[in-house]
Amino acid sequence: TFGYQNIMYLTAGETIPATTGRSWDDFIKERIFQPLGMTNSNTTTRGLDKLPDVATPHTTIAGKLTAIDYRQIDNIGPAGSINSNVLDMAQWIRFHLNGGKVNGRGLLAPATHAEMFTMQMPIPPGGPMELLYPGANFLGYGLGWFLFDHAGRKVVEHSGGIDGMTTELVMVPSEKLGVIVLTNSGSSFVAFPVARGVINKFLGVTADPVAAMLPMVAMAATAGARLEDSIVKARATGKGPSHDLAAYVGTYDNPMFGPARVAVDSGRLLLSIDAQSAAVDLEHWHYDVFRAASRDRRLGKAWATFRLAPNGGVEGLTVEGLEQEFVRRPATVTAISCDPGDADRSRLATRPSPLDSVSIGAGAPARLCYSRPSMRGRAVFGAPLVPFDSVWRTGANDPTTLNATGPLEIAGLKIAAGTYTITTIPAKAGWQVILTDPVRSQEVGRVTVATESLTVPVEMFTIRSASTGPDTAELTLEWEKTRVRLPIKGTSRP
């Protein structure tokens, strides 16, 4: 069955550095943007806010169209991080309508380009797809393109969307016809019917897709209101939760999304998931079901449901939209290890970026957990892998976390006992070290430390701890030809 998968676009993009030694970003610039004359296209939102003429993303929040921040998706760039304009995208369309050629020069072999526009996966009719492709006799997916028929012609199409932006590109190869529609709203379907309307004008089709779409949009809005009303009416008031809120507190693991942490904050549960950037407030609904409202208002509301064990204890958590269960981490595991050790997460020890941990001396009781990416012979800091002046997770995959059993002072920054995530902003002159409360998604503080140069490169990112006194220690971070030192000492108060 057809299922759209962004992760596999990332996988395809990762074959480029694996086979060429060059980043996906540089490769796209040199092999696509430059030959096609796409001079105003790039692969990151960093710096867009400084450009003189650039669209601001918008979405609907509480019924009002609202400007929002650019979403930074560099880590899954091949799935949709390209920023462009209508003139550059016209060059991209010409490239495809010319069979993968530009100025007579083939950038793709003819057979390769033809295969992209050949159906690889049929898509059955019905459901939402029928609304997006009305009247299509066939619908399928090629290599990165939707394929269908319209007015007796084969049509090649794909949309693109990220928070606050929606794009629609349609091509009719037999007519040498292509249309690109760019919008700066993530909550509007206007790009789809507008593009089809332009195609209809050229093909002499009298149907107006915009007029046809308006009742559907109104119906969808009405259906959403009716659904919310039915949910409220079905609420079982006075039922649950099964336990006091403290019983739900803990860490819940999932091999894809990472840990989910539940805490009590201001009399209600607060949920933080490693795969999401903002904390989520949990408001009790009924039984062990909670209404989940992200503090990033763009993400809206969902449902969080806790699962009970046969003995009545809380042992699992599901969150609407993530589709996989988070399993509660045993307290004994939390106390002794970074790795919960279950069948899924234990495999992380053999991956290219294995988990590791560092115990910090008796005078400064703490444990640091991190993952160790490999340099693989490439440049690291300042390169696309870890760009300067950009937030880095200080490792790969899992976040770097510090579990402190007592108050500590890290490079002059005082913290209370607890669990913190450590991110860094590398630069040539010095690194900013940022400590964050992962449950509340709140920064605790940041400090800048100096860097040292190494003569012999370190292949895998490594953190070591050494005691420097009765109540002091030093963390040393090393990777490639860079070393950073973090002095740590125990304190009597945070």
Structure description:
- The structure is a single chain.
- The protein is an alpha+beta fold.
- The strands form 5 sheets. Strands 19-20-21-24-25-26-27-22-23 form a 9-stranded antiparallel sheet, with no helix packed on it.
- It is globular and about 85 Å long.
- A hairpin with a 6-residue loop joins strand 15 and strand 16.
- It contains 8 helices and 27 strands.
Summarize this structure as a short list of keywords or feature phrases:
494 residues; alpha+beta; eight-stranded antiparallel β-barrel; 36% strand
Backbone CA Rg: 26 Å
Mean pLDDT comes to 87
Query: What's the overall geometry?
Result: globular
Looking across the biggest beta sheet, what order are the strands in?
19-20-21-24-25-26-27-22-23
Helical stretch count?
Answer: 8
Major sheet details:
9 strands, antiparallel
Give me the count of strands. Answer: 27
- Low-confidence spans: pLDDT under 50, at least 5 residues? 340-349
Q: Report the portion of residues in β strands.
A: 35-45%
Distance between the termini: 55 Å
Query: Structural class, judged by helices and strands?
Result: alpha+beta
Question: In which range does the helix fraction lie?
Answer: 10-25%
Task: Give the topology.
Elements: H1 6-20, H2 24-36, E1 58-61, E2 64-67, H3 86-97, E3 101-102, E4 105-106, H4 110-116, E5 121-122, H5 128-132, E6 139-141, E7 146-150, E8 153-162, E9 165-172, E10 177-183, H6 191-203, H7 209-233, E11 250-253, E12 260-265, E13 268-273, E14 280-286, E15 289-294, E16 301-308, E17 314-319, E18 325-328, H8 331-336, E19 355-360, E20 366-371, E21 401-404, E22 408-410, E23 413-415, E24 418-425, E25 430-437, E26 442-469, E27 472-490
Antiparallel strand pairs: 1-2, 3-4, 5-6, 6-7, 7-8, 8-9, 9-10, 11-12, 11-18, 12-13, 13-14, 14-15, 15-16, 16-17, 17-18, 19-20, 20-21, 21-24, 22-23, 22-27, 24-25, 25-26, 26-27
Helix pairs in contact: 6-7
